[in-house]
Design a protein that fits this description.
heterodimer; A: alpha+beta; Cytochrome Bc1 Complex, Chain A, domain 1; 2 domains; 16 helices; globular; B: alpha+beta
Amino acid sequence: MALVALALGAAAAVAAPVGAAVRPTKFDYHITTLDNGLTVILSEDHSTPIVNLQMWYHVGSKDEPAGRTGFAHLFEHLMFKGSHNVRSDEHLSMISSVGGTGNAYTTEDVTVFFETVPAQYLPLVLWLEADRMATLRISQRTLDSEREVVKEERRWRYENQPFGLLSEILYDEAFTTHPYKHQTIGSMEDIEAASIEDVQEFFDTYYVPENATLTLVGDFETDYALQMVEHYFGRVPKAKKPVPRNLPREPPVTRSRRLTVEADNWPLPAVVVAHPITYDGHPDAYPLHILSKILSDGQSARIHRGLVYEQQVAVSAFGQGVIIEDPNLFYAVALVQPGRTPEAVAAALIAELDRAKAEPPGDGELQRAKNQFARDYVIGRISIEQKGMHLAHAQVIHDDITTADAEFDIFMNVSREDVQRVARTYLRDDNRLVLTILPRGSRRAGQ
Amino acid sequence: MRRALAARVGALVLAAVVGGPWLASPASAQRIDWPSEQPPPPLLRRHVDFPDYEIRSLDNGLRVVYVGHHEQPAVNVRMILRAGAAADPPGQPGVASLVGQLLDQGTTTRTAQEIAGGIDSIGGALSVGTARDLGFVDVLVMKDSFDFALDLLADVARRPAFAPDEIERQRNQVLSGLQVSYDDPAYVANVVFNRLVYGFHPYGMPQGGTPRSVRTITRGDLVAFHRTHYLPNNAVLAVVGDVTAEEAFTGVERALGDWRRGPLAPAATADNIPSPTRRLVVVNQPGAVQTVIHAGHVALPRAHPDYLAFDVAIKILGGEGGNRLGSVLRTERSLTYAASADIAGRQIAGDFMAKTDTRSPATAEALRLTVDEIARLRRERVRERELRSAQDYLAGSFPITIETPNAIAAQVLEAILYGLDLDGLEDYPERVNAVTVRDIERVAETWLQPANLSMVLVGDASVFLRDLPGVGFDRIEVVPLADLDLAAADFRRASRFRR
């Protein structure tokens, strides 16, 4: 859940009632960089004798070469297929045999590997992560077999799920140039095309210490843990070349568009209204977060209340700002209530967005949104895994670990006028995409 | 829906024990000097106990659990009641669920919008709902709103209004939701599997009801269900977070002390749950790119003395620290993204189920391998090393299972709900480690009947149906998805009736 929140939004950082008695506890951490460029963050938490390790590689699906969509994620899978001292698939069995859990995920911006283990096994997880960072071994046979697993994942997670292809359809329409146009899972065709040379090139380019951030949160002494980190990671060689950062920029959208498409596995008509917005860390990102809350957090928020509860034109409806490393989208989705038309639903959604431009939110509404942020902030920092995620996100995406705490005050200071201003700046008539997605065959059927 | 939009794509659901072939070619062209070495030994282990908690009972029979946690200024109040779908009136699936959904849609003192506005404006969260064995109300607030949380919880649990217009609103939501669910192969496989395993017992019917049953539920049904099951002596409440024990118990007494106890309805029995019978049902969904595969049968209730050993056995089949299914179907054969097995231990019965998803043309092979692994678990003694690995995971993960206060409370609530010995929370690692190879053999013999499996395939039958006899599966019942009727013995609706 928290993982998803992070993947979708900028730092899940946030606001409390101004001057309220409750204030989230701040992080206590230590940050350093090894000689080979590896960033290391350590934060002690002795409440339970466990430790969470996260290794964030600053590479995601937006960094994939042309014709290789899905490659960053496929590569993530390959990281479990063996290295110099670890046999294929042995990584996770070693973790589970000590009572730990581990996994990994890939987003547009990052690839994250993580383990939570009883605290005495900290050396084991450090050793495992260092071994694969330095010496991953992949054969053609492994690549071919894991490719099939990833294709099954695409079928299972997207193709065979009701509405599973929503993001793929939306982003393909909304973007022309920036790689956010394609989904992290990639296309079947591109997954099929990945070669062993691609694997080697990707590993040498992105899986290097200077492109990685290691975060440890849990029951350890910082000095001793740092010595262990030095021991296992200090021997990983420095990168031979700089990590490329030269993504194409998405040109500004200057006209509104409306279109209707059909999709498989699509039980009910859906309407999506989308606008380009800014990136995580931009000053406008904070009021955009607040605006998203006002529109869509809770049953009393505007979109649910208006479309689902009062007008009953939608079965469900929500909106969100996808505030990530590069500029992405704000979008709202509504599933059309049987008996209602997509046109009516689109009009109702647009009316809610227009209202945000026409007048600033009420004081109570703004306060509600800030209180909801404070809640998310507080309950999103309870487990050591959540803590590690906030620290790593601040460092990797903002390049400033202090934002893990400092954004709280920024959110607290967002004003009604800020919210109206960003609504006017980004939710414009001339950059709007209105996409209607119908069940396959419904137009032919004359609906 | 929101989850489906998440950009994150995970790698592995379950670990596989058996490794693939040793791989020789390094991905990195640059030769580096790297030592060959064994994994490092662990550091000193810190002893860990199950964290402190406190239980008291009010005079009206409400049991109250307190778990303190003071790192963040939040407090969670959650109530569970024995008011789950298992208590649905016979032939009326969906009543318990609709009651649960309507709890926060207006009380005799607050409208639905006042409830939503109230909880949202303080930055809290309210969730209500129903599971198989329980109904729940869960309120999360910052600590300065603790009294508000208790009052809100008391109001929605005790005094839902069941206003006619709110009933219709929720009914429409449920019906639209079911329309989407019937297009979701995972949902379809689950509800068909449950019907096969539990027959027409309430455990066999879909929790949310069927479109036909949901249309016929009346306000009277809802009011009667609520009056019968939402009672303090049928509930357990937990206060978790940044308040003291005294604040917790005093607050609960104030908000819920005057809630009157009532006579408890007789608990449902396991009488009409059929014994395991081999059936293979194919729900045909033309055009599907994957087939959902479920196989299992009825097993044991949560409180049964064999539960722990059987849980370990099923972990070896398809869980963390083991997972033969994952090794065979994913690691060796690349047929799936995930294969697993799990047990559902409920109040009056339980089941085990193996599941996977595979590309349509591989359906017959994947089903064969799944069923073979179930049979092997019963036929062959498990190896000591495999048992050790499952035990190491389950016992070793103990400190992780008690990390958060909500996880601690959930374990205590579960124990109370199912009438388990609370001391069992503390000595869980010892009990897991006491399981022997012989125990696994015995529970597999007692509780596994590989010849009597309920098997469900949801997918494009035209791709795989003809392959099934070739791998040993005959007597196949094929049901078109469009005709699926969970209330019919053969799952097919009579043509002129709506499902």
